[in-house]
Specification:
The chain is mainly β. It contains 1 helix and 20 strands. The protein has a 20-stranded antiparallel beta sheet that branches.
């Protein structure tokens, strides 16, 4: 083959590779705004920047999700998130902060995997999660946090609980831990345990008001001194 043809063919290959590489380059958009409307709520997603990585999947830097529904507002913040437009979900990077406008309740959640279903208003994880709600810290294996007109309801699996009230610490555990944020009520269900006010309570079910620092209900309870 003549040298001129070899050079021409090589040049075509270089150009083809360059075009292919350019087509895969991530395009960054600053200050994107996504508006989603549903019959019962409106959702606005803002970010510092976004990159389209694959079809309808976008990386969002510094996303803020603002949700307004019937009788409630909710803000969800994270450092980085992956937005799947087709599934309408946000995969949050390690940590999220929820702010409920009903009584300005704040929840901080950290996990290796956090998924927010935008349409169902449901934040979930199946991995180990550390959650801080008011003066309560919960370390659990998986969780579900939902916001609706009645407020924020959170449920945790195999949860270790610490409650700090007036510099005094109460510790607990249950197979299922529920927090009704607006009522400031903690529910321990299944192999429930609570070390509170120098008493150890073991029960099938414990209801604890962390607003009033008292147990309001228990089922099949065994109580002993913490000594």
């Amino acid at each position: 083959m003549p040298k001129t043809k070899i050079v021409y063919l090589a040049l075509l290959m270089v150009i083809a590779n360059f075009v292919s590489a350019q087509s895969k380059t991530l395009i960054e958009i600053n200050n994107p705004f996504i508006n989603l409307s549903y019959p019962d709520k409106s959702i606005a997603i803002k970010a510092l920047s976004t990159k389209n990585i694959e079809g309808n999947r976008f990386i969002l830097e510094g996303p803020i999700v603002e949700i307004k529904g019937q009788g409630f507002t909710l803000d969800l913040k994270s450092a980085v998130a992956l937005f799947d437009k087709t599934k309408n979900i946000l995969e949050l990077n390690r940590e999220a902060k929820l702010l409920s406008g009903k009584e300005y309740n704040q929840i901080r959640i950290a996990s290796d995997e956090l998924v927010f279903d935008i349409e169902d208003m449901l934040l979930t994880s199946v991995k180990e999660v550390e959650t801080n709600i008011d003066n309560i810290k919960i370390i659990s294996l998986g969780m579900r946090v939902m916001q609706n007109s009645s407020g924020i309801n959170a449920q945790f699996n195999k949860g270790n609980v610490s409650i700090k009230i007036k510099e005094k610490l109460s510790l607990g555990y249950a197979e299922k831990v529920k927090v009704i944020v607006d009522k400031k009520e903690l529910i321990l269900e299944g192999a429930a345990y609570l070390n509170h006010n120098d008493l150890i309570i073991e029960s099938d079910l414990i209801h604890f008001s962390y607003a009033n620092n008292e147990i309001t209900k228990s089922l099949n309870a065994k109580i002993r001194n913490n000594s």
